[in-house]
Amino acid sequence: MKAADYKKLKTDVFAKTKDIRQFDKETGNYYKSIAIMSKRADQIAADLKQEFLESSQQYASSADSAEEAYENREQIELSKFYEQLPKPTQLALYEFENGQVYFRDPEED
User: Fold this and answer.
1) Helices and strands in the chain: count of H runs, count of E runs
2) Measuring CA to CA, which residue among 20, 19, 41 is closest to residue 87?
3) Is the pTM above the cut of 0.85?
4) Residue 32 and residue 25: Cα distance in Å, rounded?
C-alpha cells in the first residue's frame, strides 16, 4: 500500500484505548495477535520509510548552505505529509481489526 492509500483509511491519527478482549477473536490468543500486529507495523514502517526516502531523493541538493534547506518548499511539504499519516502501529491495528492482515502459524501447518 502506498502512503497516499494510508491517508485515505478511516483511522484516527491519535491513539485510542482498545478493549484487549477483542484481539483474541482471530487467533485465540492475545499475545499472538499482538505479535502479528507488531510485525505488520514493522512492515508498514519499513514501506513508508522506503517510500519517503525515494520521494525525497528528487529534492536532494548538493549544496550545503542553510538557506537552501529552508527554501525547499517541496521537501517541507513532503515531510509534513508523512508526519500527518497515522503511525504504523495504528495502521496495523486498523488492518488487523478489519481482517486485512494475512498471517499463518507455522506451528499449526
Assistant:
1) 5, 0
2) 41
3) no
4) 11
